[in-house]
Amino acid sequence: MDYETPQFFRVMQYAARADRDVVDMVSGNPDWDPPEGVRDGLRDYAEADADAFQYAPSRGLKSLREEIAARRGVDVSRVVVTNGAGEANHLAMTGGMDHFPGDEILLTDPVYPYYAGRASFLDAETTIVSVDEDGHLDPDAVRAAASEETSVVVVNSPNNPTGAVYGADAMAEFVAIAEEYDALLVSDEVYDHFDYAGRFTSALEQDSPNVVATNSFSKSMAITGFRVGYAVFPSPDGPAGDLVDRAGTRHMLTNVSGSRPAQYAVERALRTTSPEYYAKCRRRLERRIDTFCGALDAAGAEYNRPEGGFYVMARFPEFAGSFANVYELIDDAGVAGMPGEAFGESRSDWIRFALVTPRIEEAAERLAAFFE
Known about the structure:
Elements: H1 7-17, E1 23-24, H2 36-45, H3 62-72, E2 79-82, H4 84-99, E3 104-109, H5 113-121, E4 125-130, H6 139-145, E5 150-156, H7 168-180, E6 184-188, E7 211-216, E8 229-232, H8 242-255, H9 260-272, H10 275-298, E9 302-304, E10 311-315, H11 323-332, E11 335-336, E12 338-339, E13 351-354, H12 360-370
Helix pairs in contact: 2-9, 4-5, 4-8, 10-12
């Protein structure tokens, strides 16, 4: 698979050119409203003094970094606010390749394509570890694949695309593997608010110098266009203390700083949004999962019910997860999903569907009719 070319846009552009109505189940853009604090923050910011419209501190507004640090139980010196989780992951992976020995990045199959694209961008050797039949990454398989050449291990929980969620035991093992092989564990936790299994555990709970946790507010607050993410690096006083300074420098050279009003609005929302907002989002998605999985049953499909996140992967009888078949679904069923082959080999017969559309029932009916 050519991971240097964005794969999502291939499908989205094909769907946009279709001569029929198409339900978009490709993009991960939430279709619900953000917390009211986001809108309140933006309204207030519009009346701010002139100096508030200038560059933000490069590593992020101090008050936002302090709020993040308090919530994650870390010192504020470890937090860098980034332009989404994408930049956070890039800074973490790049820093890991620089700091730790070896030139290999260990990834999961199926893999979120942007991880593989970054590994290719960094000209790193890549080792792929396939998930098990239930879509989980087995720590024993990771340990067997790791070696002295491994410098970075990437884990995503809740996972895109499988929906797997890793608890305390599994996360502790992933961290131990990184420490054993003198590598960096990059734990992408962007879907942490969408845990239906009730066992999500952050890698930060291990308090290891071999961990960077990345996250963003794009999904949890339904603000993908704001591009406010962050990374929590090892303590600057520890053996991997150079990682946070390197990340800060790269972030400054690339972006100077992030959007000041977006950060201001996110901070306001963090301080004013009740847990019920996130619970309501989870309940909405659980209903959609029920509806969509019911349609998959009717279509005779195999699928993994997601433990977290908002994606479902399904395999239909004699209908591989190729780009050609996804295009056929767009043309003949009016439903756009992502081909499994875009995520690697182990789920190349599957198709990934994003449940962030109010047209879930309609899409489910179309799929059931297409495969009847």
